[in-house]
């Protein structure tokens, strides 16, 4: 660090009394203890140019009788030095014993500037440094600011930063302060190692922590940037992970970090002492509260005898028990867990003790740091308010809810004593973060082709906790837009109201001969029944119509009609037109769409009005990359609340993940669905359409009942019943860095779709002009019945085996599958390779 400094006189309009403390100047002189006592008026001041004489004298406080003793003079000298206004302060003896205070004032800062900084803006650095324009210059303060700027860069991963302050002299005792920054390159984490881990591999533990190793795609994220606070937090994540899996004695002894100058990065090593794995020996309940039966809380315990000891289950049990006791009128009940370890049997006997806690009330809840979010949005996450009994479990739940809102960078609730011994004040400290998103998404799949989406969303609209999103999609086979709005607290109840308006257009492609246009609106209500159980109620109303290329609906069988044109060739029992003396099929050889499609085309737009609900049970350890837990969705929709169609559709989908050996995760998936007719006939569009979403290795709409017209498009008709089962093993590539995000999968699928109950014929009043009507005779009458649908509906079990490549890429999740069908229907269509994925950038 270098300083170039030349002090000159100047004027200062106001006295600045705040600055960083400085050490006493080398030249400061103290009056000898033998000096005679003086009065304040006998102090003369020299060298001051901006600070008034009386202001300097005011630092010398007289004692009894208005006299200054040696102690008062010494205190005044120290106080002047500590103001930071002076570069030098001396006290000397003048003529007649008068005290002379000689000062050299610090310069005034004309401007503070930053040079060389590209990664961090001037505005951010200006708010961080203490040296301010028009403030007093202080060497100590400049040194502190230099260290502060370097620390800001280190927090962003640039440990090679160099900050050099430079002082440029200006007239009138002013200086310009320039901080020159050499930012250097980002300092990443080059390796993460674990020592002492036996039960879990290093590969598995890297999933637990937030710090990541540097790789080719690290520029898309910041997890590989060395952050000592994040490494320290990772220690706790590792400890919690072991405690969750039964290792009650685990200790993460240290997190060692070492800078490697050759790699220009850090090596991080976590030292772990695992201890033994424990199971729950017994679960007991005890109460010291009169007339309170502790066993009545057994149903709220998530700890079961014989299960792995899980600290998270114990904590959740304590929370739910304490809240239930409060609901029963025991507002001050406290549930304290205890454990008795059997080191030989490796068991822990858990005891939940219910005791009467101190009678403490909440005096006040202070909200601090919510500059944008309204107070009521925060307060509604509390189940308690001012004046209620203090309940730590409810406070912890509120803190967890506030964090889950994802409105804040950090949330911390602390307590402080209130106005009396039985009062407590809750302080909620928050730091706001950006909640708006603008994204451009793109993807490609073998089913939908290329696809792009532009969306704008806001999770905390106007600071009121509202969610809004607008999205436009344009793709090769799919186009449309959607508008969504969510009010998470309807009428101040913890019920989420959602409104969705959408328009979708599906174009014909190699898997379906027809397109569809759908315009719909759907309000919904969401309830959280428990942390692992949620319910959604919805109403859907949408208008749908089929679009069909003209060449797939141009059949005219009336030879005498003006638009009759049997070209390319009229088909009659496979013979040319000259031989149609026998019963013909009645269609052109360029193909015709299937009868149910053409009937839907003739019906025009159809309105569907349906009520439905979804019940979801979710115990997954990670929703994005699960390795353990169960996810079950059960959905039912009843159409017929007005509209043109009616049916009852029921669907269940269950996924169970379980960790096996060597970081291999097993997945079992079961799914089933049923469509029941109610009143009106079922449309083909309401049937289930299945393909790789049920059994991989088959094309979209490649499974189930199919039109067998050899001269038509042979459309998939769908079915009213389906079932599917899958077994999958997901395993990492141990030879690749964890941060690459690649893992493989092997799987076996089986399933079936059958029982078509859609139209097979329909009666028209003008059969000749009906779109693509296939009549029973070549010269039909003006009215008749369209026939000719012959279809396959065999109940064949489809099965396949395959391998997959799963990539949790920075561009979004991508998956590649190659599956070989083992059994299939005669008319099923296969697709061995499948790819799908997307991104947001």
What portion of the residues fall into strands of 2 or more residues?
Answer: 35-45%
- By secondary-structure content and strand pairing, the structural class works out as mainly beta
Mean pLDDT: 81
Low-confidence stretches: 1-36, 561-589, 764-786
Got a strand count? 37
Any idea what the shape is? elongated
End-to-end Cα distance: 42 Å
Using only C-alpha atoms, the radius of gyration works out to: 39 Å
The protein's oligomeric status is single chain
Q: Which strand order does the major sheet show?
A: 16-17-18-19-20-21-22-25-26-27-28-30-31-35-36-37
Helix content: 10-25%
| Biggest sheet statistics | 16 strands, antiparallel, barrel
- SS summary, helix count: 10
Report what the structure shows.
With 841 residues, the chain is mostly beta strands. The protein is built from 10 helices and 37 strands. The strands form 9 sheets. The protein has a 16-stranded antiparallel beta barrel with strand order 16-17-18-19-20-21-22-25-26-27-28-30-31-35-36-37. Residues 1-36, 561-589 and 764-786 have low confidence and may be disordered.
How are the elements arranged and paired?
Layout: E1 43-46, H1 53-57, H2 70-82, E2 86-93, E3 99-105, E4 108-115, H3 122-128, H4 139-155, E5 162-170, E6 174-182, E7 188-195, H5 202-208, H6 228-244, E8 251-260, E9 265-273, E10 279-287, H7 311-327, E11 333-342, E12 347-356, E13 361-368, H8 375-379, H9 392-404, E14 408-417, E15 423-432, E16 436-445, E17 449-461, E18 466-475, E19 478-487, E20 496-506, E21 515-530, E22 533-547, E23 570-571, E24 587-588, H10 595-603, E25 606-618, E26 629-639, E27 647-659, E28 665-677, E29 706-707, E30 721-732, E31 742-754, E32 762-764, E33 784-786, E34 791-792, E35 798-809, E36 812-823, E37 833-840
Parallel strand pairs: 1-3, 4-6, 7-9, 10-12, 13-15
Antiparallel strand pairs: 2-3, 5-6, 8-9, 11-12, 14-15, 16-17, 16-37, 17-18, 18-19, 19-20, 20-21, 21-22, 22-25, 23-24, 25-26, 26-27, 27-28, 28-30, 29-34, 30-31, 31-35, 32-33, 35-36, 36-37
């Amino acid at each position: 660090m270098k300083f170039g400094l030349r002090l000159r006189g100047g004027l200062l309009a106001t006295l600045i009394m705040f600055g960083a403390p400085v050490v006493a100047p080398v030249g400061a002189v103290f009056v000898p203890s033998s000096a005679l006592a003086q009065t304040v008026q006998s102090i003369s001041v020299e060298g001051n140019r901006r600070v008034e004489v009386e202001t300097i004298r005011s630092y010398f406080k007289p004692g009894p009788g208005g006299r200054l003793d040696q102690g008062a003079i010494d205190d005044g000298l120290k106080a002047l030095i500590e103001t930071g206004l002076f570069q030098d302060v001396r006290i000397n003896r003048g003529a007649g014993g008068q005290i002379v205070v000689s000062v050299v004032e610090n310069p005034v800062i004309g401007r503070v500037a930053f040079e060389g900084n590209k990664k961090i803006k001037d505005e951010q650095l200006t708010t961080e440094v203490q040296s301010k324009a028009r403030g007093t210059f202080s060497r100590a303060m400049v040194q502190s600011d230099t260290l502060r700027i370097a620390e800001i860069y280190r927090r962003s991963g640039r440990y090679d930063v160099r900050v050099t302050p430079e002082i440029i002299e200006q007239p009138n005792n002013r200086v310009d302060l320039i901080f020159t920054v050499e930012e250097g390159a980002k300092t990443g984490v080059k390796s993460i190692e674990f020592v002492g881990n036996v039960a879990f591999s290093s590969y598995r533990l890297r999933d637990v922590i937030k710090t990541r190793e540097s790789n080719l795609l690290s520029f898309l994220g910041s997890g590989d940037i060395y952050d000592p606070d994040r490494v320290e937090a990772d220690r706790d994540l590792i400890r919690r992970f072991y405690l969750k899996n039964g290792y009650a004695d685990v200790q993460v002894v240290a997190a060692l970090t070492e800078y490697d100058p050759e790699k220009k990065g850090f090596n991080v090593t976590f030292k772990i002492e695992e201890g033994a794995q424990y199971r729950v020996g017994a679960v007991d309940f005890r109460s010291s509260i009169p007339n309170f039966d502790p066993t009545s809380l057994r149903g709220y315990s998530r700890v079961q005898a014989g299960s792995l000891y899980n600290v998270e289950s114990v904590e959740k049990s304590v929370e739910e028990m304490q809240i239930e006791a409060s609901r029963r009128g025991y507002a001050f009940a406290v549930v304290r867990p205890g454990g008795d370890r059997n080191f030989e049997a490796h068991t822990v006997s858990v005891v939940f003790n219910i005791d009467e806690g101190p009678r403490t009330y909440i005096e006040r809840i202070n909200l601090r740091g919510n500059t944008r979010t309204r107070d009521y949005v925060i307060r509604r996450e509390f189940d308690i308010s001012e004046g209620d009994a203090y309940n730590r479990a409810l406070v912890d739940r509120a803190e967890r809810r506030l964090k889950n809102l994802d409105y804040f960078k950090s949330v911390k609730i602390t307590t402080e004593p209130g106005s009396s011994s039985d009062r407590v004040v809750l302080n909620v400290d928050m730091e706001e973060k950006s909640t708006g998103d603008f994204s451009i998404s793109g993807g490609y799949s073998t089913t939908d082709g290329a696809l792009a989406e532009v969306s704008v969303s806001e999770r905390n609209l106007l600071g009121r906790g509202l969610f809004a999103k607008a999205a436009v999609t344009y793709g090769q086979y799919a186009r449309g837009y959607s508008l969504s709005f969510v009010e998470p607290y309807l009428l101040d109840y913890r019920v989420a109201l959602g409104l969705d308006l959408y328009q979708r257009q599906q174009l014909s492609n190699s898997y379906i001969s027809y397109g569809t246009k759908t315009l719909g609106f759907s309000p919904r209500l969401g309830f959280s029944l428990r942390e692992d159980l949620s319910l959604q109620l919805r109403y859907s109303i949408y208008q749908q119509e089929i679009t069909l290329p003209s060449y797939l609906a141009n059949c005219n069988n009336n030879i005498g009609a003006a638009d009759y044109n049997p070209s390319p060739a009229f088909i009659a029992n496979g013979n040319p037109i000259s031989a149609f003396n026998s019963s013909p099929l009645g269609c052109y050889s360029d193909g015709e769409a299937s009868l149910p499609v053409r009937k839907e085309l003739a019906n025009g737009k159809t309105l569907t009005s349906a009520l439905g609900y979804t019940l979801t049970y979710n115990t997954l350890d990670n929703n994005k990359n699960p390795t353990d837990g169960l996810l079950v969705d059960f959905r039912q929709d009843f159409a017929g609340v007005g509209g043109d169609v009616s049916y009852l559709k029921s669907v269940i989908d269950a996924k169970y993940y379980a960790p096996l050996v060597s970081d291999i995760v097993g997945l079992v998936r079961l799914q089933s669905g049923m469509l029941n007719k109610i009143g009106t006939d079922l449309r083909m569009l309401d049937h289930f359409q299945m393909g790789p979403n049920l059994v991989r290795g088959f094309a979209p709409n490649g499974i189930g009942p199919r039109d067998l017209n050899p001269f038509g498009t042979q459309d998939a008709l769908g079915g009213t019943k389906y079932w599917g089962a899958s077994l999958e093993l997901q395993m990492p590539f141990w030879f690749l860095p964890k941060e690459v995000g690649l893992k493989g999968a092997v799987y076996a699928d089986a399933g079936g779709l059958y029982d078509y109950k859609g139209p097979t014929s329909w009666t028209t009043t003008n059969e000749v002009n009906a779109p693509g009507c296939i009549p029973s005779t070549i010269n039909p009458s003006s009215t008749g019945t369209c026939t000719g649908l012959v279809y396959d509906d065999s109940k064949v079990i489809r099965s396949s085996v395959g391998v997959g490549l799963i990539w949790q890429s920075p561009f979004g999740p991508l998956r590649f599958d190659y599956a070989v069908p083992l059994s299939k229907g005669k008319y099923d269509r296969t697709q061995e390779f499948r790819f799908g994925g997307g991104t947001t950038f």
